[in-house]
Amino acid sequence: MEIITGAIIACGAMYVAEKYEPLETKKIKHTFRNINYKVGDYEPKLIRIRRKESWKEYIFNVPYGLIDDPKLQPILAKTLHKPVHVYFDGKLHIRVYKQKLSNKIDYNWHIADGWTVPIGQSQDKMIYHDFDKIPHMTVAGMTRQGKTVLLKLILAHLINNHPDDVQFNIIDLKGGLEFGWYDRLKQVKQVASNVNEAYALLSSVLKQIKSDMSRFKKGGYTNVLDTNISTRKFIIIDEAAELVPGSHLDKEEKKIYRYCQHAMSEIARIAGALGYRLIFCTQYPTADTLPRQIKQNADAKISFRLPTEVASRVALDEQGAERITNIGRAIYRTHEKHLVQVPFIKDTDIKNKLKEWIVDDANTKMDPTPRENIVTFG
Ligand SMILES: Nc1ncnc2c1ncn2[C@@H]1O[C@H](COP(=O)(O)OP(=O)(O)OP(=O)(O)O)[C@@H](O)[C@H]1O
Predict the structure, then answer these.
(1) Which domains does the chain have, with CATH numbers?
(2) SS (H, E, C) the chain
(3) Which residues sit with their C-beta closer than 6 Å to ligand 1?
(4) Structure confidence by residue, pLDDT tens digits, 2-29
(5) If you measure from the C-alpha of residue 206 to the centroid of ligand 1, how many angstroms do you get, rounded to a whole number?
(6) Which residues share a beta bridge with 58?
(7) 239 CA distance to ligand 1 centroid (A)?
(8) Does the record carry Transferase as a key word (predicted)?
(9) What pLDDT, in 10s, does the model give residues 207-222?
(10) Which of 63, 250, 252, 332 could bridge across to 39 with cysteines, CB 3.0–4.6 Å?
(11) Do residues 82 and 98 touch, judged by C-beta distance below 8 A?
């Protein structure tokens, strides 16, 4: 009799739990069924719900053999009409956010620790990139999606935080239009706006790297972080596709392009430990425009919207950037991955804030370029 009563109570409890189950839980379970996310008759089992102010997280035990499926996140986001983050750590976590990520976040000139830069607001928090932890970065994204704004944000933030220690070498192959004004700043060593100037800039950087390397060897140092050297030297390349040797070029011209390719790879391969930081930017991520050597050595990858899944795989080693819909929205990938809204900053605000660093005499810049390093062609 007792057993029968116990069984009736248990069945009743299950019925009530199912009937009054919150709608969101039901929708998630129905979605699993509809997309056949199960093994045989075994379905994921909800074991816990965690709650925070901005999200609710459903944690499921999944049957052996079932892992997270890349389709789950976009399908659940559309079904629930809310931002969803799915991750798997032996259990399946489905985090459902209450609010959508804002479409615009303003940069606020705050002082940040060390060599960190606010790269974007995720659903949970502001994500910072630390250039002392991950020296090199690639940036990809179709035209008008926010690459230049991000580059200027990094430059402005670092100059504001480290006016006496940061140095920039900029290759601006969009005709020097974007960074021409910045060439007047004390912290901007040089701006190259065509391939010949890029060649000269990269050869002067390689020369510095060689001399720094022998200084490091003499001092017995292997990494700038172990020294008292406070300077960090950034090399920004925008747009890298312009440095790919095309078939229409003659032999001599091709040599210049090949040298540039070699120099960029060398910076990525050997210069991080010496305090050089490469930011390599392209609209068209392909095996030619994003060389293997650079990709392998740049442990931070950022991508704005890209036209295809193939391009996303080149830029980030995974799909996703082709599904971004907002301007300024990007995937930031290191050992972790975050969808972020990059803080927006107006060119006029940067110029206003940084004008105190304008120098009229190039010799008063930080570490002025010795004349013999400047090589020109043509
Ligand atoms: N983080 C952002 N938040 C909001 N709006 C942005 C953001 N970044 C860029 N935008 C808007 O998009 C416009 C284009 O951005 P940007 O110049 O950075 O594009 P781009 O990717 O560098 O394009 P291109 O490769 O053609 O030079 C900006 O003028 C601005 O209006």
Answers:
(1) 2-97 (3.30.980), 116-373 (3.40.50.300)
(2) CHHHHHHHHHHHHHHHHHHCCCHHHHHHHHHHHHCCCCECCECCEEEEEEECCCEEEEEEECCCCCCCCCCHHHHHHHHHCCCEEEEECCCEEEEEECCCCCCCCECCCCCCCCCEEEEEECCCCEEEEECCCCCCEEEECCCCCCHHHHHHHHHHHHHHHCCCCEEEEEEECCCCCCCCHHHHECCEEEEECCHHHHHHHHHHHHHHHHHHHHHHHHHCCCCHHHCCCCCEEEEEEECHHHHCCCCCCCHHHHHHHHHHHHHHHHHHHHCHHHCEEEEEEECCCCCCCCCHHHHHHCCEEEECCCCCHHHHHHHHCCCCHHHCCCCCEEEEECCCEEEEECCECCHHHHHHHHHHHECCCHHHCCCCCCHHHCCCCC
(3) 104, 141, 143-149, 174, 283, 327-328, 342, 344
(4) 666 665 555 555 555 555 568 899 999 9
(5) 31
(6) 49, 94
(7) 14
(8) no
(9) 999 999 999 999 899 9
(10) 63
(11) yes
Indicate yes or no: pTM above 0.90. no
308 alpha carbon – ligand 1 mean position (Å): 19
In the predicted model, is pLDDT for residue 377 greater than 60?
Answer: no
Protein residue whose Cα sits closest to atom 24 of ligand 1: 143
pLDDT at 68: 78
